[in-house]
Design brief:
9% of the residues lie in helices and 35% in strands. By secondary structure, the chain is mainly beta. The protein folds into two domains: 4-205, Hemopexin (4 Propeller), CATH 2.110.10; 213-341, no CATH class. Strand 10 (129-132) and strand 11 form a beta hairpin. The longest helix is centred in the last third of the chain and has 14 residues, at 268-281. The two termini are 41 Å apart.
Amino acid sequence: MGSHHFVVGGVGEGRMSDDQWETNAEVLTAMVLQKEVPKVHIFSTRAGDVILRPDLNCYLLLSGLPTSPCAELWPLHPSLRGSEHYFSSRWHNTIYVIRDNKLLETPNLHTEPSREPHRLHPSCCAGQHYFIVSGGSFGIILSPGTMTAVKDLTTGEPDPDTQPGHHQWSNEKMGSHRSYLYWQLWDNFSGEVFSFHPSVLNFLPGGLGLSKGDAFKAWELLNIFHNYSNIPVSRLQEVSRKVGCATEKLADVGRGWVAAALPDSPEPGSVAVALAKAQFALPTEYGGVGLNTEQEEWGEAREVETTLNFTLQPEDVAYVWQYQLGLGKEVILFCRDLEVTLGCDPPTKVPLPSSS
């Protein structure tokens, strides 16, 4: 059984229903480059398959990728956050974590390390990817296409049964923009391609853009006020609008996720909101709008009243606009910013900071 190459359903193709999954070697779609978002870690453990989002401090645990309709949602333990590499295998009781060239070992990702960290051997530092080689050794991709294997990451003892050097499949992995590779067993790159289940797809960077549609930003017209008199008119005008997140539009994002029975476990709803924030922050080529929404109100959308003070000259018309962000055709975030214009064209300013 070889390593599997998992990608999402192809652009322009019909999406599969929850119970319809099949091998599809023709699937191509643009996934998010790692330089655009924090790294996503996908690997096997004895308990199941893990998809870890360090930027969200949580992970999904699945019985098998990529067709699982259900997943457990777990918190990443604080002592394991901010690390560069996470990996394990179905044949190991330990999950390995690398941070600052030190190796940490833990039985699972929601508890603290089981032993003191040990420094990596110099020959094992600065790897671009770490994984378990069949037989128990550790594989390290040092650069695109170049791989080595050692019996112990702290001593650097080579594994004589694994030939280091140039491997086309590792080169393909490091250079791919279109997928996330799922390392299961050491073997030549098999080329097998599967579609992600929607509950898994939503958890990946850019996944919401594929499942719900690309993000959009727009000024929405709320009110129009006329001055029909022949004299200037100053007015204080109450304007009602929604502010916050339309959480009901994100209710299906975590469908199939079950929160772990821990006091600090994240709720699927809160993770869905965090995923929406991350989607809006992505560049447009990955279905985002490139905006930082951290300072906006992300609680349940509510009606608020705002008093506007403006003066209208004779025959003037005032247009009141609200900035909104959404996915596909649905508004997700009702921003606080309002603008008044004297023409019917929406404002051109962008009231939110760039995410880059």
